[in-house]
Amino acid sequence: MKDGTTPMEMLTEGVLASQTIAALMESGVIVGAHPTRLQPASLDLTLSPRAWRVRASFLPSRARRVAARLADGLAMQEIDLSAGAVFERGCVYLVELNERLALPEGLKGAANPKSSTGRIDVFVRLVTDYGAAFDEIPAGYEGPLYAEISPRTFSILARAGSSLNQLRLKYGECRLDDAALKRLNEASPLVDGPADIAGGLGLSVSLQSDSEFIGWRARRHSALIDVDKVGGLERQDYFEPIAAPKSGFIILDPDEFYILASKEALAVPPDYAAEMTPISPGLGEFRVHYAGFFDPGFGWREGGVNGSRGVLEVRSHDAPFVLEDGQLVARLVYEKMAARPERLYGETIKSNYQGQGLKLSKHFR
């Protein structure tokens, strides 16, 4: 670094803030990233021109590189994304990312789809060389990054430079246990009501509303979605509204995609980050989210909650499943920041979902 500080010397325990990620970019720990892609507690990753249509989702295993697995016969076709390409729904693709890492020991990473990616039902997972788990980057990892992309409902158009997922870097133990989370909630309320804290902050689904509808259900056989175009699509062409059920419940149809909202209005204080995690499969046969990162400042204001609800990207599994109003559907895990970000979510940066209620992705009017 310019002042002679090593990457290890700049690290303190917690989730790294944007200014620290920027310093790691300058020092060569992160290569190929651009400062405009920084978020308060994460970095948006970008597609390179090089992609493959693959036969199936895969992990390289702890003994192999991604390139070796592709050469095994998993790659069906190499695709050039320089001018853009269509990713067909129901197919699986692997794209090399522009960013590479050379993490020091003790610094690990986690990835998640961006909010706008999850809300159009595109499943994106990070893959690394010698990786035995998706979306996890072990401490000390050095090498390329890849995104596995699988559109589920809508086919998408993407190109080199498009961003579908994001990276969060962590040093040491970051996660708050329940006792620490209760203390935080007492000092700075995390929800606009009683906090259900047990293995994280509980979120329940809202199936009641003063408006005409409580959610959206994706339409089949809709037109293409260009992931880089904001605000150009009519929501009714891609989603149908769900009226508030008089019964107090809805039935999730298998292999259908729903956008719903949490009952709770959430807040993430400036010195913390959060991540939505699914509940135990024993509580329901459905998936509750694709995109799980919540930045410092989400839904927060000095002195209380600012009313930003969690948007739930819901898909049932193999059987129809009853979802009731107020049913527990997810938990929010809070982690301490290593430093407060210089810019909070919703302050001086463009934040598409601050103060949100039930909101579709940024691609829709």
Essential attributes:
mainly beta; 365 residues; 9% helix; 6-stranded antiparallel β-sheet; 4 helices; single chain
Unreliable runs, pLDDT <50, ≥5 residues? Answer: none
| Fraction of residues in β-strands | 35-45%
Helix content: under 10%
Distance between the termini: 44 Å
Mean model confidence by pLDDT: 91
Structural class: mainly beta
Count of β-strands: 28
Computed Rg? 20 Å
Count of DSSP-assigned helices: 4
- Main β-sheet description: 9 strands, antiparallel
Q: Based on CA inertia axes, which overall geometry fits?
A: globular
Explained architecture:
This protein is mainly beta and 365 residues long. It has helices at residues 18-27, 66-74, 115-118, 178-187, and strands at residues 14-15, 30-31, 38-39, 42-45, 47-54, 75-80, 85-87, 92-102, 107-113, 122-128, 136-137, 142-151, 156-158, 165-171, 201-206, 213-218, 225-226, 239-243, 249-252, 257-266, 272-278, 286-287, 293-294, 300-301, 304-305, 308-316, 321-324, 328-336. The protein starts with 13 loop residues before the first strand and ends in a 29-residue tail after the last strand. The radius of gyration is 20 Å and the shape is globular. It has four helices and 28 strands. A hairpin with a 2-residue loop joins strand 24 (300-301) and strand 25. Strands 15, 16, 18, 20, 21, 22, 23, 26 and 28 form a nine-stranded antiparallel β-sheet that branches. Strands 1, 3, 4, 9, 11 and 14 form a six-stranded antiparallel β-sheet that branches.
